[in-house]
Amino acid sequence: MYNESFIPVFAHRGASAYALENSFKAFEKALELGANGIELDIQLSKEGIPVVYHDPQLSRLVGSNKLVNECTIAELQSFKLGKPWRRFFSSYRIPTFEAVLAWANNYQLPLNIELKSTILDNQDALVQLLQGLKLPAGSHFSSFHYELLEVVKRHAPQYETALIA
């Protein structure tokens, strides 16, 4: 538990002012800058695999009108990410939550895991994610969707939750 006089700073989508949001580069830069935690966004692939990506649609960073949950994990990881004129040369890819979690556990860096709308249609994938999950101390789940936080509380009551309003 945090000391009451300590207010943790969670880097929103990593240090997204310095590197592409929700990328390993942004997460590493946030750590370098002294963030106490990382806020990231979880969507689900077509197969229900959690990936770290903010928007339900791929248009802004990929240039495709597809939804994240319409794409397989292989498809999602093949996309180059970035602004339209930079994405052709980009090395940024959509990371899996599993890979980001391994990185965060290595540094014991707390996560604010925002559960996004694509999970509403596949709550079984959320239950599967929660089974045996080991997060760094101080991690928690947040969402605009109360029903997703209820799933977390039912299957992983040890984790704090926060409703975004």
Main attributes?
29% helix; alpha/beta; single chain; globular; 165 residues; 6 strands
Give a verbal description of the structure.
This protein has about 160 residues and is of the alpha/beta class. The chain contains 6 helices and 6 strands. Strands 1, 2, 3, 4, 5 and 6 form a 6-stranded mixed sheet that branches. Strand 5, helix 6 (about 145-155) and strand 6 form a beta-alpha-beta unit. The longest helix is centred in the middle third of the chain and has 11 residues, at about 95-105. The mean pLDDT is about 95.
Distance between the termini: 24 Å
| Strand runs, count | 6
Mean pLDDT over the residues:
94
Count, helices: 6
Shape: globular
Stretches where pLDDT is under 50 for at least 5 consecutive residues are none
Instruction: Quote the beta fraction.
Output: 15-25%
Produce the secondary structure layout.
Layout: E1 10-12, H1 24-32, E2 37-44, E3 50-52, H2 59-62, H3 73-78, H4 97-107, E4 111-115, H5 123-130, E5 140-143, H6 146-155, E6 160-163
Parallel strand pairs: 1-2, 2-4, 4-5, 5-6
Antiparallel strand pairs: 2-3
Helix pairs in contact: 5-6
